[in-house]
Fold these 3 entries.
Entry 1:
Amino acid sequence: MRGITNPIVPGWYADPEARRYEGKYWIYATRSFTEYTKQMNIDAFSSTDLIHWEKHEGIIEMADFPWIWRAVWAPTIIEHKNKYYLIFASNDIQSDDEIGGLEIAVSDHPAGPFRSYLDRPLVDRFIQRAQPIDAHLFKDDDGAIYLYYGGWGQCNVAKMNDEMTGFIPWEDGEIFRSITPKGYVEGPCMLKKEGQYYLMWSLGNWVDGSYRVAYGVSHHPAGPFEDKGVILERQEPIAEGPGHHGYLHIPDTDEWLIVYHRRYIGDMEPGNRMLCIDRMDIADGVIKPVVMTNAWESL
């Protein structure tokens, strides 16, 4: 048994996406600044033991995205046909008249460099009132890849095509399906266990201690998702504002970990967010409330 200490890496980071690729654990994260326009690339971290992390700095070849002039954040990644596809938000667009939205890049390695895949944004407009931010890629057991995303209190899901260049319609011909659950603000995350789909999302405001995580369960990747309540929120004296998370499943075990950002209680600086890992207990259609820690023993 070896101990994990939170935060897991130094510095301010947020919006982690977590995966296991090529025998390592990987975390992709936003460089967290209060002045968010300084967030102009994504950093990744890799580890074999969840304790010692190697930093991979600036994994996107930003010269490939000349239309991005401010704000890069909220990465998600998926492996498909021996390539790694990274989707991230750009420019914090406020209307369809602005360029940016969700970008897609590709690499042969999980550490990058990630090069532009389409030479344009993947999603560049508001669809069903969802701001195109906070993407999460989920690969189902049959290999189908789903894109969950959305800010401004709206969540959409779409099915990626096999080339990862766009989307294929649902059975009813719809491309983007609104699945906004109760209280949704942003940061969707999908997990599947024993045939059930667990959609998690962030509530509250990312700049303060009100940020937290809720979830719902369905037998279909597009829901509907019945709200099951909050599983991660402020816990004195540990931390407040936990949210916008990913997860890891330890191979050959039933151990699930939540990878998330949080802030020190009372810290009023919006950008002061840090990466943490804690256990997540999932059984019989229920995710138990997560207990935040400063340190714990890993397998």
Entry 2:
Amino acid sequence: MVALADALRAKTLPKERKELRELARVTNGAEPWLLESSDQTALIRRIEQQFPTIEEAACKVGIGVATGADKAFIGDFDSLDVEPDRKLPLVGTRDILTGEVQWRGQGVINPFADDGRLVDLRQYPRLRRYLEARKDEIAGRHCAQKTPTNWYRTIDRIFPPLAKRPKLLIPDIKGEAHIVFERGRLYPHHNLYYVTSKEWNLRALQAVLLSDVIRLFVSTYSTRMRGGYFRFQAQYLRRIRIPYWRDVPEALRKELIEAATNRNPQACNRAAFRLYRLSQEERSALGGNGE
């Protein structure tokens, strides 16, 4: 231990200390320290300097609805005995296990009016009967006890237009990137993050997010779980850097869209490498440099 302490205090790294290695560009202002291999760190720092964040590039990262009482608020869509405008079809992790959406028919109760306030249950007799039959479970939540008059709200407000927007769905915990395109029919559950965009073609963005470049971003910043799993949480997704859509050449746009549509990971990588203008050395860095 004394020898190790002396080596760490030395002005230059002793060559005979094989268990020590020196990393450059670990710090970058208030950004988290990067302790990956030096070539991977250099690649990330280069991309961070040259490209905007995913949200600066007109993409929105969000998370699906948390109800606080899923057994009460969620059920078979057709069997939810409420007014038709008080329920939405719901998508969760089990619906996207194959990499494509295969809806299992679940739905979620929406107690909110378009203005964001809770609906008046006197105007929705079926919804009222449904909720009051489950009042013990719903009203027992912490959020309901804080505001008893709003006992039937979900933890998160529900925005029905989101269900109709095309989006990319991303499970929280995954060993590999699992980015699924949803055409705009379903509302996401809280175990899914989603990405929407007013500018980027979502199929093209799907190809980028499936690439090894983005996997490096997420694996570098994310908490690593047991078994090598990463957490694809919003704070890590928002660190992703992509070009502005207007700066993507037409031929490359088509290449990205085709790669994602065909679910071809090699093609996603090839297109992403060109998108980020990776040199041969940087492409090799995605596998580390053995340091």
Entry 3:
Amino acid sequence: MVDMSEFKGRSFLKLLDYTPDDIGDLIHYAAELKALKKAGVPHRYCEGKSIALIFEKTSTRTRCAFEVAAADLGMHPVYLDPSGSQIGKKESIADTARVLGRMFDGIEYRGFGQQIVEDLARFAGVPVWNGLTNEFHPTQILADFLTIREHCGGIEGKKLVYMGDARYNMGNSLMVGCAKMGMHFVACAPAKYFPNAELVETCREIAKETGATLEFIEDPMTATKGADVIYTDVWVSMGEPDSVWQERIRDLTPYRVTMDIMNNAGEACRFMHCLPAFHDLRTTTGYNVYKKFGIDCMEVTDEVFESDRSIVFDEAENRMHTIKAVMAATLR
């Protein structure tokens, strides 16, 4: 098993804080832990520890991944939902961190600005893990890269095309991750939906060291040619007003992932999505959008989502294995 001792006591806030070797070690460790779970081999490496899970934004996959991973490691997780904590309301981030850091061995935060999770880590005195902020989603990227490694035979040099709104946590984090790991990243969207220029420049500097390629292309057929992975996400992020739906549907419908797009990429191309996905009318949001705008899917068609080229549920499962790796590495 890979030696993870150098990670002990560190927080996991964004991939920019970690070297390519660090990221590779975490992915490899996650694969080892996944193999142990599949074989039914106990791995209670953090027996008796307790962790706090702060969720200012709810999530099925992130909560379940942290709670199951914690249980597998022998830990006790305490879930604090949006109404279960006074963080930033009656109590400052710094004060919350210093209280929780005395009671828990680690803290997960899922919510709003990146500065919140950075401040938690600054004051807590225990490892803090970013379960999602407006700017970054690093645990998702570890799961994505483990999934790519499993299905594409490796990570380095693979071409990943992100289609849609690339200005927020998923576009940012995939671009950073691809830059770090020597991949070929393409943001495919209208130009106003590309990541911010400062982060792009940071990633270009990283790419000079790793051999990564970064491209920003508006034409879907040009962007997706030869892609190993086509990745998309919902068009309206959590916390954004309903008023943006009309604009996003108008701007991003040409960037919907269809079977024509997948075929343009090539037979070996795989489809990924961090979920939830609006690929049919079996959700309240999807049905309401259909009634208002007359479309039966949004960022991906049901044909692609349900096809054998879709690896979204392997990807979702890998959230648990990679989150487990992060917690075990930083707490053991």
